[in-house]
Amino acid sequence: MAGEKRFDRVALVVNSGSRSGAAAFEEVRGRLDDLGVPLGECYQVTDGARLPEVVAEVADHHDLVVVGGGDGTLSTAVDHLAPRRVALGVLPLGTANDFARTLRIPFGLAGACETIAHGKVVDVDLGRIGDNHFVNVASIGLSVGVTRALTPRLKSRLGPLAYPLAAVRAYRAHQPFRARLEFPDGDHAPMEFDDLLQVAVGNGRHYGGGNVVSPTAGIDDNTLDVYAIPAGRVRDHLSIARLLRNGSFVRHQNVVHVTTGRLNLHAEPDQAINVDGEVVATTPQEFSVQRNALVVLVPQESDAARLDTRHP
């Protein structure tokens, strides 16, 4: 609980470019202060390019950094928090908020601030691709087109409803690609695909505004969920799309799904990679899971993760 000695130096960093960030900053500061959270430095970041610099700076002399923004903002922040074992407090201010959804953190500011003040400390796995961590899913193919179609204006106007509209636009423009999946740990034979719609690598449970990676996916299981969907026929894709919400699409006859700890992904032609809603890399890449890499606050009743390592 908040009364326990855990965090003496708390920083607040809010991405004002996120869907709700600009309006949230002052309200959050007031709520956290009223709840007795010992706030130190507080930053309202209007230029997203400065976010990594600000988070890295405050992480050096705070033991809890409260970050407000969408999944892309949180994915950027954990690159600097995880190596330092600095805890993360989550303010879900984006469009999808899938990381918060996975951890059962309330979307409302009041509930999110209560979690920061009175929640419990857990540690969760992070996916890794090159020098980037990811909290939810990294993928190639259709999802990259969806991300590019999700303009700030579209997200601002439609909120979560922007996702299906962007998906339709991306689907119409999609160009199939080839891919080879290799598993360095030898847990699966290499896989080759000639005509693909998407390959995704999931660390968490939710993505795309509430879709489920697989029925068994979790963020504290030391496992990556990997799935591949062939280009195929429209009617097959429609039948798969109906199952995205609960993750049972991975059992569809046209979907290949495996779990692993490491994956080498090659594509022809090379494909851009969507990492938690931001296009930040290209194939080929190695993906891996880092167990218990991030310390984060969640509601007391959340069962999405537990504390497996000692927190300083």
For the largest beta-sheet, the strand count, sense and barrel status come to: 11 strands, antiparallel
Overall pLDDT: 92
**Helix residue percentage:** 25-40%
The number of helical segments is 9
Portion in strands: 25-35%
Radius of gyration: 19 Å
Note the overall shape: globular
Beta strands, count = 17
- What is the succession of H and E elements? EHEHEHEHHEEEHHHEEEEEHEEEEE
How far the N terminus sits from the C terminus, by CA atoms, comes to 16 Å
Give a quick precis of the structure:
This protein is an alpha+beta fold and 312 residues long. It has helices at residues 21-34, 51-59, 71-81, 98-103, 109-118, 142-149, 152-158, 162-173, 234-241; strands at residues 10-15, 39-45, 64-69, 87-92, 120-129, 132-134, 137-141, 177-182, 191-202, 206-207, 211-212, 224-230, 256-260, 262-268, 272-275, 278-282, 285-298. Helix 6 packs across helix 8.
Features:
312 residues; alpha+beta; eleven-stranded antiparallel sheet; four-stranded parallel sheet; 34% strand; disordered N terminus
Structure explained in plain terms:
Helix content is 27%, strand content 34%. α1 crosses α5 (109-118) and α6 packs across α8 (162-173). The strands form three sheets. Strands 5, 6, 7, 8, 9, 12, 13, 14, 15, 16 and 17 form an eleven-stranded antiparallel beta sheet that branches. It has a four-stranded parallel beta sheet with strand order 2-1-3-4, with helices on both faces. By secondary structure, the protein is of the alpha+beta class. It has helices spanning 21-34, 51-59, 71-81, 98-103, 109-118, 142-149, 152-158, 162-173, 234-241, and strands at 10-15, 39-45, 64-69, 87-92, 120-129, 132-134, 137-141, 177-182, 191-202, 206-207, 211-212, 224-230, 256-260, 262-268, 272-275, 278-282, 285-298. It is built from nine helices and 17 strands. Residues 1-5 have low confidence and may be disordered.
